Amino acid sequence: MMGAMASLQHSPLAPDKPLPGLIPGDLAWHLGMILRGHQTRFAEAVEEMPCSVRGYQMLSTVVHHDPANQQALGAHLGIDRTVLTYLLDDLVAAGLVERVPAPTDRRARKIVATKQGAALLKRLEARVAAAEQALLTELDSIESAQLARLVSKLSMAIHRAQPGANPCEAMDHLG
Amino acid sequence: MMGAMASLQHSPLAPDKPLPGLIPGDLAWHLGMILRGHQTRFAEAVEEMPCSVRGYQMLSTVVHHDPANQQALGAHLGIDRTVLTYLLDDLVAAGLVERVPAPTDRRARKIVATKQGAALLKRLEARVAAAEQALLTELDSIESAQLARLVSKLSMAIHRAQPGANPCEAMDHLG
DNA sequence: GGAATATAGTCTGTAATACAACATAAGTTT
DNA sequence: AAACTTATGTTGTATTACAGACTATATTCC
Fold it and tell me: Is some CB atom of chain A closer than 8 A to the CB atom of B10?
């Protein structure tokens, strides 16, 4: 639709550069653009959820990765522990998760989804998946798969390369 | 390096899912991870620059896209106009850009790089390009090119699809 | 031409947010 | 058991985004 008409004046890049040679810094611009577009749709998809996107991500992480404690959860999502405290307060208040004493370590709390939490997550996952598909609309299925593969591979690599600045650091504690 | 050894316990995904089938919401997680890793390296690369990454992006946009006025600049980068005012104040104070009256519209200011600004940008671009390459280290050159292509294509598509929520809206005024 | 309206930029105040610093309880080491 | 570390929670502070008001200039419509 409306593909290569006109002169692509609005392109942030020189129209027909083959792309491996982006202006330095453009990668961040494109990533930011995609992430912003994604966040917009994502937030809309999960508007029922307290704390919006992060609420969804916390609940999803709890259900799918079963982190051993709050710290592992926060580290996975890059959320500071002091921030996590009040984000979780909201989810608890909404009855979506509970803080239960961790069996192996009485200092720690394990976050578990309630029945309602699991149900809400299941319901929202369909909406989120649809939002992600909508975002990728302009890519064909091969491109989407390629992008998913590359993005996954790269994020793993980044995780391994700089564990300090990186939420995945504590992934080893997960599950 | 260290590829498929062990069980990939730290992976946020089921170890051997073929990736097109991510958990709903994982795309955002991976994108966020990449962007965060990028920002870390990026910020380090441009530490000389006032306002850090955004300072660099503003200066880069001014030089490479020559936006007609502040609004176009801010829209391109997704920066609110009231915020842009004081970010630009910093760049002006550092002698990197100037606000000159726009020739066609006396309400507007055109942002132009000073000699020092252009020189600093040139110097930092090498560092930023190196940082981006370092980020992509784990991808081979074909994969990097693929990623750049897909990311560019997708960000353009997003721009076209939702102009409202999107910084590119005002790209038409640029250049 | 001139009133009404729209737009570019700035300034001010407010609300959200992250984070540092401290506090507490429980595990670990020596 | 004394000293140290870790997991979480609490409080205060600084940053940051953004809404709203304001000025100056453009544009539109009569």
Answer: yes
Residues of A in contact with B159 (CB under 8 A): 10, 33
List domains and CATH numbers for chain B.
48-134+170-174 (1.10.10.10)
Instruction: Give the side-chain half-sphere CA count within 13 A for A171.
Output: 23
Nearest CB to A139: which of B38, B57, B153? Answer: B153
- Bridge partners (DSSP) listed for residue B99: B111
Q: Which of A36-45, A54-63, A166-175, B126-135 has the lowest mean pLDDT?
A: A166-175
Q: Looking at the predicted structure, is the pLDDT value of residue A10 above 70?
A: no
Q: What are the pLDDT digits (tens) for B15-59?
A: 333 345 689 999 999 999 999 999 999 999 999 999 999 999 999
Between residue 110 and residue 139 of chain A, the positions with Cβ below 7 Å from nucleic chain D are none
What type of residue sits at position A51?
C
* Backbone CA torsion sign across B164, B165, B170, B171: negative
- The β-bridge partners of B97 are B113
Which residues of chain B neighbour A122 with C-beta distances below 8 Å? none
A128 near B24, Cβ under 8 Å? yes
DSSP per residue over B80-106, as a string?
A: -HHHHHHHHHHHHHTTSEEEEE-SS-T
What is the reported pLDDT for B7? 30
- The average pLDDT across B126-152 equals 95
